[in-house]
Amino acid sequence: MNHSFYSQVYNIVGRIPEGMVASYGQIACMLDSPRNARVVGWAMRQCPADLPWHRVVRSDGSLASKDFYEFQRVMLESEGVEFLPGGTIRMETYQWIPDFHV
């Protein structure tokens, strides 16, 4: 994947509203690349510091980052995102459904 794909990922992530989340796969599908959820993850590892990276989660509502798990959870909770007892987010409640096409 090229830097243009990463830029498109960052454009989408920058639009995720506070208190909502999107999955890696969802972002890949929005870019017409449904098999590239992993590449979205690679892009997120290198994302700009001002991007709301914490709003990107796995499709099952779990947090992907082992290194930043607690920090990401605290950031999401501070935005009103609630976690289920198993540590996942109820995607049907908090998944962002954009009102635009990429």
TrEMBL record:
Q: Does the keyword Repressor apply?
A: no
The record ties this protein, via Pfam families, to: DNA_binding_1
The entry's keywords: DNA damage, Methyltransferase, Transferase
Q: Name one GO biological process term.
A: methylation
Highest taxon in the source lineage: Bacteria
Residues in Methylated-DNA-[protein]-cysteine S-methyltransferase DNA binding domain copies: 5-81
* A GO molecular function held by the record: methyltransferase activity
- CDD domains found in the cross-reference section: ATase
Write the protein's name: Cysteine methyltransferase
